Amino acid sequence: MPVSINRTRRKEKTLVNRNLFFFRPAKVLVIVLLCIASLLTGCSLPRSVTTDGATVEIELNTVPFFPQEEYQCGPAALAALLVSSDVVTLPDLLSPALYIPKRHGTLQLEMIASIRSFNRVPYQLRPEVDDIVGELRAGRPVLVLQNLGLNIWPVYHYAVVIGVLRNGSLILRSGTTERLIIERDTFLNSWEKAGQWAMVALKGNELPADHDLARYLSAVSRIEAIGNSQLAEECYKTVLTRHPYNDLAVFGLANTMFAQANFTAAATFYSYLLRRDPTRAEAANNLAESLAALHCYQLAIELLDRFL
Question: Closest by alpha carbon to 160, among 142, 182, 178, 180?
Fold first, then answer.
């Protein structure tokens, strides 16, 4: 097999009642348990805030809304993301592959795998709100993971960011609320407690708004690694259309050509890379394999001898 691209990732003042210190332990325990229960009721949600007349800067009104059923925030949020990328699906169709009964929820790995299965590139954003806003400006909603509980007792929840107000508040499709407006600081607190995970689903002809090609090509290489050579090919061509001298994209494109048995095209691209850098051993190795596949055995042997 040819060598592949590196698969590279808060007092508020409290009025204290003197009688509080004379509560019986049982009463204290009941209060604590009630507080915990209020935190752990399904995917609990922050309350919507008033906008004080703040105007909308960006809002993707066409993003569909799928009210979640209990513990089904993952499928509901992912369905909204995928449908916005022209995928025909519903939460009920996604749930069997996403929902983990023992965990009462969905892991990020399942979300990523599901995006790939629909011929889309799962692209994880850098942990910056500006990157979320950048994707909104590009017309793409952003899937986020929040922790609506405590660090020691988390309540994880998936939502989709669809807009931002000029005062910095964000607009979400979240749980049973179609248009949840949440203050920036409140969002940041819940997002940071969940690891600042955010993701978009990219078509093969789309590049991320942050223009981080190394990060993007790493995501594409994983598409290539699972055998989706056609999507990977489209992605590499999209990069080369705008950045024609990106050697990583050329190398990835050559690999997809080889995987699809287009050995002549693969050999052409590997040869181009060797001309640019004659010491590039991985290009020489893959070129030799391409030549052997074309029955040019002597040329393949002579090429390999130069690197032994």
Answer: 142
